UniProtKB/TrEMBL annotation:
The lineage of its organism: Bacteria, Pseudomonadati, Bacteroidota, Flavobacteriia, Flavobacteriales. Keywords: Cytokinin biosynthesis, Hydrolase. Signal peptide: none annotated. This is Cytokinin riboside 5'-monophosphate phosphoribohydrolase. GO terms for biological process: cytokinin biosynthetic process. Its EC number is 3.2.2.n1. GO terms for cellular component: cytosol. PANTHER family: CYTOKININ RIBOSIDE 5'-MONOPHOSPHATE PHOSPHORIBOHYDROLASE, LYSINE DECARBOXYLASE-LIKE PROTEIN. One of its GO terms (molecular function) is AMP nucleosidase activity. It catalyses: AMP + H2O = D-ribose 5-phosphate + adenine. It comes from Flavobacterium aciduliphilum. Belongs to the LOG family. It comes from the Bacteria. Pfam families: Lysine_decarbox.
Length: 241
């Protein structure tokens, strides 16, 4: 991080800490409520026409030559051929791979893009009428979980973990249906799952052992589609597309 970056960061912190009058706070908050409402309304109207899909989460930093990018593309292709639509975060990396695979498989390809200052730009493989832009992470996350029939989680960073644990929490607390959560990459996810089992559950008893049954760990595109199909056969359901 260079001098200018530190300087800009200091300015942002000072701006956040600056005392505002009650009128300023009330005016800013009132306009924010309208903006939040508009994002929800636009998201609901667009996603309701698309119907439920499978969400693919993963890092924006993964390059096209990376094995996980290529695996995510194959997974999305197979998912679309199996009759499922694909939702991603709309950006580069794993998200791009997901939309690319869905596009190649002639399936529904949805992008829920987030406005970020430096990192994110939407990828070219999203269906033109299914590219949504959000300023608020929490509105975007609602769209992911409300319209997903399953969650495929590729290797990623803090954003991917946030989306993973959001999905687990909502299923665990019965706020959404018990949809499959599929982690892809044994070598990547095993350490986290071991910690959850050995420390969070066995040592500290901060979760129910049954909660681990919500998660399936796989390594191939065929295992992902098999897990989705087995889940929906069990409940006599079928893909929406």
């Amino acid at each position: 991080m260079g001098y200018n970056d530190y300087n800009n960061e200091d300015e942002r912190i000072q701006e956040k800490l600056k005392q505002k009058t009650w009128n300023e706070i009330r005016t800013n908050d009132s306009w924010a409520i309208f903006k939040i409402m508009s994002e929800f309304v636009n998201g609901y109207e667009t996603m309701a026409r698309i119907g439920p899909c499978v969400s693919i989460f993963g890092s924006a930093r993964t390059k096209p030559e990376d094995k996980y990018y290529q695996l995510a593309e194959r997974i999305a292709y197979k998912i679309s051929k199996a009759g499922y639509g694909v939702i991603t975060g709309g950006g580069p990396g794993i998200m791009e791979a997901g939309n690319k695979g869905a596009h190649r498989g002639e399936g529904t390809s949805v992008g829920l893009n987030i406005e970020l200052p430096f990192e994110q730009h939407f990828n070219p493989y999203i269906d033109k009428d299914k590219n949504l832009n959000f300023d608020y992470f929490f509105v975007r996350k609602v769209m992911f979980v409300k319209y997903s029939q399953g969650f495929v989680v590729m290797p990623g960073g803090f954003g991917t973990l946030d989306e993973l644990f959001e999905a687990i929490t909502l299923i665990q607390t019965k706020k959404i249906g018990k949809f499959p959560i599929i982690l892809v990459g044994t070598s990547y996810w095993s350490g986290l799952l071991d910690w959850i089992k050995n420390v969070m559950i066995d040592q500290q008893r901060n979760a129910n052992p049954d909660d681990l049954n919500l998660i399936k760990l796989v390594d191939t595109e065929d295992e992902v589609v098999e897990a989705l199909d087995n889940f929906y056969k069990k409940y006599n359901l079928s893909p929406n597309f």
